[in-house]
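Dear colleague,

Following up on yesterday's call, I've attached the two folding results inline so they're easy to grep. Please treat them as preliminary; we haven't cross-checked anything against experimental data yet. The first protein's sequence and structure tokens come first.
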Amino acid sequence: MATYVVIILSFLLVLTLTTIQLYTSNVSAEDRVTYTGAVVEYKPYETWHSPEDGIVVLQENALRYIEFMVEAREKGAHIIVFPENALTGGQIPKNQEKLMSVVQVLPDPAQRIVPCSLPDHPRQEVVKKLSCAAKKMGMYLVLTMPELVQNDPKDYPIIYNTQVVFDRSGALITRYRKKNLFLEFLFTPGTEDDSTAIFTTDFGVTFTLQICFDIVFAHPGLHNVEKFGIRDVAMSTSWFDEMPFLIADTVQNGWSRGLGINLLVAGFHKPSKSKLGSGIFKYFDSLDAEYVYDPKSGNKLIVSEITTLPSGSLVGDPKFSLPLSQPVLPVQPPDLRQIDSKEFHLIYHEDMSTYNNTFLTRGQPGQWLTETRCHKDGLCCHLTYQHSGSDTYLFTAYSGVVLKGFGVYKVYAQICGVVYCHEERLQTCGKPGLIPSIPHEEFGPFSIQGTFSVKYVYPTVIHRDLSIPAGSKFAFDKKHDDGSWNVSISTHNAIPSFMTGGMYGRWYDRDPM
């Protein structure tokens, strides 16, 4: 039995490497494109004394953005991405007056206007400054800002959370209005076609944009990846950490690996508000990721070379279609992970009380054990593992609606996973704040195989410090078989200081409308 399991685990790891090769096997090395991308984990200037200070906050953060652009240019970056909401100090204003003090008016990207060349305008100060910076640095610039649309002063203002792209000439070439808002009640969700999130660079790479909560849904990022074959995604985020499966770094890493794409993601840094995590995840043709997920990091620039398909080689599925999800109107109390005597990392938690859960049994060193959990919609999760230590782990399976944003939003998920618990009580599972400060045991090797109803399944493995292991440390594979998807995640060796491992599937077209 033991020899058989080891052979299977080794085969799965080889299969993962082979799958990555298949992503690019139809394109020769000479036809691929290599570019240098940059992302910024950013802790913004946020001092507000009155609504009139809005423009001061915008200007100060714009100047700090430019400092990062200078550093990124010195390191050869062709494109740089900044976080969601960071230009305005990181917090979404709670009243209309304060929000109106930071809104900007954006030109139509179809006109390829260079704001740097325009006269000063009272609601384009920062747009002009950043346009001039992109032109001076000769660099593509991706960021978000609150966009005002008001054709007549008598009209009620419409405000979007908008991601924009400036090209090397300083022209505003793309304007994507966030579709999937997260507790952003003063913003209007965007309704434009997903193609408004697409742009092509002069270094031969086509990107799609997405903002934060968009990664949970099919539009615009997934849609543009599938329909147009786009392999590179630029994402601005102000993430909301949730254990045990939706911590920022594992969501970003899993989405990139699950889709076989490159993800450049810039995150807003404020751990006390549950916000951190940025990186360049390069799963188009490798198992590499360069990222930061550190409550003490503060500002951090990441620059990395990325290999991808040139724009002319993209092949998608023109018939691909998924419905737009409509967000619907509480979760467990948050967990405070102490960083030092003055700072905490706020973490929210998934309610797993309705999942099919079981605590894992322990065996002898080297002994292989098995466990199976099933739930609705034909989901079955099969676990093969080694565990002889004293730590407690939960094995779980679930298919159904999960609540996000304090119950405001409902999405349909299928989940297989193993989660560390402080003790044999569900309320202690996946709680970093309860982890004792003693050496942590290993878990595994292990293999989880699930029969999912959906194609879109994303792997997750995290340590107890909430970092992610190197991509080569675990294998991930999925194949279609007789109407379902057989998906597996496995490790050849034990994972030290193990917190969570599993697979998170999204059934997009079953989201409650």
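Below is the second protein, in the same order (sequence, then structure):
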Amino acid sequence: MGHYATALSLIQNKLQQFQVQVNICTFCIAINCYCYLNRVDFGLSLLGTLFKRSYTPDVTTFTTLINGLILQDKTPQAVELFKKLMRTREIEPDVVMYGTIVNGLCRTGNTIRAVSLLRIMEEGSCKPNTVVYSMIIDSLCKDRMVDDALKLFSTMDEKGIFPHVVTYTSLIHGLCNFGWWKEATRMFREMLDSGIAPDVHMYSVLLDGCTKEEKMKEAEGVLEGMIQRNMDPNVVTYNALMDGYCLQGQMDEAIRVFNTMVDRGLRSNVFSYNILINGYCKKMKIDEAMHLFRELPRRGLKPDNGTFSAMLWGLFQTGRCGAAQKLFNDMQTASIIPDSQTYGILLDGLCKNGHISEALSLFRTMENNSLHPNVVMYNILIDAFCKDKKLDIARALFNNLSSKGLQPDVKTYYDDIRDCPGCLGASSCYMFPEGEFFSLDHLLDYKPICTVDSVGYWKFLAQERVFKFLEGLNVEFDRVRSRVLGIDVLPSLQEAFAYVQNEESRRSAMLPPTSIDRSALLFAPSRDRAGLSLPSSHPSRKDNLFCDYCC
């Protein structure tokens, strides 16, 4: 199974040695082999050979090529080929061809287009079957559109299309991911009542849902139910149960499950160890985690990014920065390329242990090596430099986000605002281009129930911004802060800023000039050679001004 190169070799030998007459079926097999070997270009060449030999490719031939394009992540080209076949009416697509295109669209996150194609099928002569519906339901659930998936499931019932275990598994998984445990169990019972037998994957999904809801007793019950049905749990099933116990800090129970798995003759994988290592690190039991880490090679397993990330996190949490640095060097020696999560842990660990200069150096090394830091990494550094009162660097990092094509998220604004109101938040809408502070509104995960609810929420949000602005003012502005808070109707953020600006103007006229560090105005940043925005050493007051009452 899967010996595609061998199959191609046999076909070639028959053609050369025995002069065997091949037919279109032989060509389809050869095209399919090339597609699974990621050489769809050779498959397309064979299509040309078909035409030269006066063969007419059928729907199976084109479906094989479309699937080959999808396997090579060339779904747009696959869709174009499908459209061309539909326009020229060279062949009549069958349900397998439609299903292949639906699968490609779902794999690339184009669920809405897949639904549109489903509607075309429903109105045409080629009706969708259970497989097509199941693929779209699964994609909807993965896109967290469970309500739409449930509606489509109801449509299946109305059309007399019977779901199978894969359909139910996708829905139950989606419900569990939302924490809708009661609905998931109801659907599981409905499946059993319909005479559909659950498979190992279904039980693993159900067990994983139990553990995420911290229902470990029920999870153990699911495992017992599998065994009673003479169904052998696999490594995925045991890993889910171990992970549940680790999340609750019950490491003894997690080890018990691990030993049970081994006793049943199952071979643990690197994910099994990652779960346990992560669990021990969360409990700050680094020695036990390191013991498991060193056991991996003896078990014939190679640690991956997840393994190193868990260990690095644990070492940094316990302040063992030297050991973490050595482990990171070992990771690179083992030719394991750190991913964004690993770099995020490194930056966070260095910053929280007071090594922010080393963190910034690592950050710049990433940029120089064409590694693209994400907004999470920027958040870590901005937060660290704010806490260290190095506001210029924090602001420079913030300003650098847009030039890297990154959008600040809620954490960038709110968490960093909380740690350093005067630097990045108390007057963010004046420090940065007008309205940028308010651009975070679309990032908030909020869905109003009604108009009244929506109005109340945005009113609360506006007041919260005023409070954060006032919180960030220096002590010399206590009087104006009290005056603003004493107004019967809390003013808007712009009005509050005007009050403070008037006070600043009055103080400038009445009191001796303050130093630049105590001024309410900061100057527009310049850029250093590394591309990071840094304050100019000789600012001109004619430059663009930024409001900052905490400097």
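For the second protein, one point worth flagging: The chain is about 65% helix and 0% strand.

Best wishes,
A.L.
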